[in-house]
């Protein structure tokens, strides 16, 4: 497409050229949007007005036109870090008051930390379309001003709060509880490293807010009664994170699972009174789950789950993390592999009783597996595979007892590997590594830290494009 110069303003063309230089193909929607933007720019060029003494012309474009341009730049930069996005917006906002006004309208999420409490109302005024707010509290910030300001933004969709203490039944706490209740459109509510109360959970439940994502990460002060009340009144919750809820027991999870049939993901990490009974209750009753994370859940129930007859096949689950659970056995993993044929991500790191017996079953039954983490599973020695694992991209065998024979099997069956981690694998030699690098042609990174025998000079010349960590 031919470049157009409009009043000497070329930055849109530069952005488009930069995208092409990177080798990224601009998809059809972006091309269509660019053509629409060019139309806006041409129309704006026709609307150039004479200013000053009449001898100098300045191109005055409408806010809608610039907003289109900025949105196009945002779409081109999708996938970049939030910090870079914010820096780009800050740079644009310094150009003129007009640009500042436009970038303010296009800002939908703000994080406020270590600012005086009276700043929050100003943020709401500056960013009229704000729908996501992250608040980081300190003890000095807990005053009614912030609570009252929240009531001025009932359209908030997402609210994340860090380090708040709502433990006393005082006037300030009641202000915050009342403010949370006014957020009638809230879909995401997160409390992290905070002290909350059952009264807060009761109040949120009474309003039946349309929550879809609810997080209590490393929070204290609440009990099972509060969480039960909230979850029973908010049945539309799809994502639940109860990190370090030490009071939870297997019976609680079974009870909660009965009315959380629409749950899509759940995280129950560091819940030390749970066992694999809680895991199988979720599997049986929450059929929509696509992600389960139950890292370090603490104890063995003594119950036996050996047969798949008690469970229906679940094609939805894609992500399963059971890391740091020393009571997980091979028979449990073989059962899970039969239940979840479409599993893509499996993390069994630090599960010390897992061996190649169950891992080979996972690899053969779960044909879509992409990411497998077996770090510190020291009973894993030799993987015998007489089948292809076509989609496996990331394999972590760090601190296991695999040897060159295992690497030979991997080189034949897992040719699509992108990342292989072998740090501190004492029985692996340069011969096995060279075999991997020769046959896994898509490999981008191999981690060999902890090896004295293998050197950069000895391995890298084979495939110099690989990233080698020693």
Description of the molecule:
This protein has helices spanning 11-21, 28-46, 63-76, 82-93, 97-105, 119-126, 144-150, 171-181, 198-207, 224-233, 250-257, 276-285, 330-339, 356-365, 404-413, 430-439, 456-459; strands at residues 49-51, 56-58, 109-113, 132-136, 158-162, 188-192, 213-217, 239-243, 265-267, 291-293, 319-321, 345-347, 371-373, 394-396, 419-421, 445-447, 467-469. Helix 7 runs parallel beside helix 8, helix 11 (250-257) runs parallel beside helix 12 (276-285) and helix 13 packs parallel to helix 14 (356-365). It has a 15-stranded parallel sheet, with no helix packed on it. Strands 1-2 form a two-stranded antiparallel sheet. It starts with 10 loop residues before the first helix and ends with a strand. The radius of gyration is 28 Å and the shape is globular. It is built from 17 helices and 17 strands. With 470 residues, the protein is α/β, with parallel strands linked by helices.
Quick description:
This protein is an alpha/beta fold and 470 residues long. The protein has 17 helices and 17 strands.
Range of helix content? 25-40%
What structural category characterises the helix and strand content? alpha/beta
Q: State the separation between the terminal residues, measured CA to CA.
A: 47 Å
Estimated radius of gyration: 28 Å
Helix segment count? 17
Overall outline: globular
Mean pLDDT across residues: 79
